[in-house]
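Form P-L/3: holo structure prediction, ligand heme C.
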Amino acid sequence: MKQNKRKFFVTALLMMLGAIGILSFNIIQQPQPRKLQNIKALPADWTYQQVDHLMDQYKVDLGVNCRYCHAADKNNPRRNDVVSDDNPKKDIAREMIRMTAELNQKYISVLPHADTVKVQLVTCNTCHRGAPKPFGPAVAQQLPPQGPPPQPAQKGK
Ligand code: HEC
Ligand code: HEC
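OUTPUT (holo model):
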């Protein structure tokens, strides 16, 4: 009986030590929150997680994969180098981010009903609908001109 009791305590003690060991190992192993390194168009105070989440949405809205906008990692071409600006589509996407924000800030959120109902903001999907080019090239050729032609960009505006 006494023997059994001692065995029990020794086993319990070992198990507790083991648990503490695993816990502290986990704390040490816990990865630091990842830092964003090259953000020029999205809000500067966004977390890595917020940006990563939005990227999944871009994939769906444009019907593409990450590589469509991100360059290959030079050391491991199967991976993406999400910090690099080597893929020219990334800078196009930045212009699109700025354009979409401006549409919402300047035109949509100031509509007369904007303070009474939930406004429908413009997203990438408003235009793209699951394709990198909103219209395929064949359709683009046939599009009639819409309204006034583009004006050359004005200086100092
Ligand atoms: C439509 C183009 C596009 C697609 C598709 C896309 N990205 Fe991005 N990604 C960007 C742009 C543009 C930026 C930079 C935003 C800025 O400058 O504010 C960026 C930045 C990032 C960053 C931040 C890197 C840093 O530290 O500066 C991560 C992480 C990232 N993308 C991951 C992904 C992943 C993962 C996917 C696929 C699920 C993906 N992206 C798909 C355009 C895209
Ligand atoms: C108001 C409509 C509109 C919105 C909103 C919009 N786009 Fe676009 N986007 C276009 C059009 C039109 C083109 C094709 C331009 C061209 O002829 O190359 C395009 C092209 C692009 C391209 C280049 C595709 C290619 O293969 O050359 C990328 C990348 C892109 N958009 C990303 C985005 C992202 C990301 C968003 C959301 C932040 C967005 N767009 C929001 C209209 C839009």
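COMMENT: The longest strand covers residues 71-72.
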